[in-house]
Write a structure and sequence with these properties.
Elements: H1 2-21, H2 26-40, E1 47-52, E2 67-70, E3 79-87, E4 94-110, E5 125-132, E6 148-149, E7 164-165, E8 168-170, E9 175-181, E10 186-193, E11 197-198, E12 202-207, E13 212-217, E14 222-225
Parallel strand pairs: 9-14
Antiparallel strand pairs: 1-4, 2-3, 3-4, 4-5, 6-7, 8-11, 9-10, 10-12, 12-13, 13-14
């Protein structure tokens, strides 16, 4: 009986040792995630740095020869994100490995205090290298110059697209020319704009007859009306 117990004990030890050996290498999973993030962030502007978290040693996965990384739906490769790794074999497994991604970008900042409603000029802008975990800020000055500030900012403020708007091409109370263009005709009339609008934005107009119409603000006080 003792001999049988010893044999069973030895068998259990052997099986446990085999199970401990027959598991997916965590280092290989981290390398898969590292390669995936490097490939996916290669086209991002600026210098990308990231760190991949260690995998909990208590997680045991069976060996897999078809391991692939993926980005969960709705996730972005910036800031704190979990990268999925799955075994693409029958009865495969999947885990998620946290990654911290930072981007060092040469962003546009305000060179001086700027007031609400001010048109941005080249001398109003400067540059600052910033490490960020959010996809914010502008890098192309041509996208800011000529735009109007929606609110005041202090010097050194990172410029963003949502803080700028196109200059008004039509102002509230302004007399405008309505242009109705069809496939083979063009009609014109006049009216008064009821709201401010930049080029390409919707503007409400009261016509000379008192009718309210909506159109698209063009340049030089023209409002385009769909027939």
């Amino acid at each position: 009986m003792t001999t049988m117990k010893n044999l069973l004990l030895m068998a259990c030890l052997i099986l446990n040792c085999t199970a401990a050996i027959a598991q997916q290498d965590h280092a290989a999973l981290k390398e898969t995630v590292t390669s995936f993030v490097q490939q996916q962030t290669a086209g991002l502007p600026g210098k990308v740095t990231f760190t991949v978290d260690e995998i909990d040693r208590r997680i045991v996965l069976r060996p897999c020869s078809k391991v692939e990384a993926f980005l969960p739906a709705g996730s972005q490769l910036i800031g704190r994100v979990s990268i999925g790794v799955r075994c693409a074999e029958p009865k495969g497994w999947s885990i998620f490995i946290p990654v911290q991604i930072k981007i060092s970008r040469d962003l546009l900042i305000s060179a001086r205090p700027l007031a609400q409603g001010q048109i941005v000029h080249a001398e109003d802008l400067s540059r600052q290298t910033t490490e960020t975990t959010q996809n914010v800020g502008m890098t192309d000055p041509s996208l800011a110059i000529g735009k109007v500030l929606r609110y005041s900012v202090s010097a050194g403020y990172i410029m963003r697209a949502d803080m700028l708007r196109e200059p008004y091409s039509v102002r509230q109370g302004q007399s405008v020319r309505l242009s109705v263009q069809g496939s083979s005709f063009t009609l014109s009339s006049s009216g008064v704009a009821l709201n401010n609008a930049g080029e390409g934005e919707t503007v409400q107009v009261r016509t000379a007859s008192g009718r309210l119409v909506s159109g698209i603000a063009g340049n030089e006080g023209i409002v385009l009306i769909s027939p």
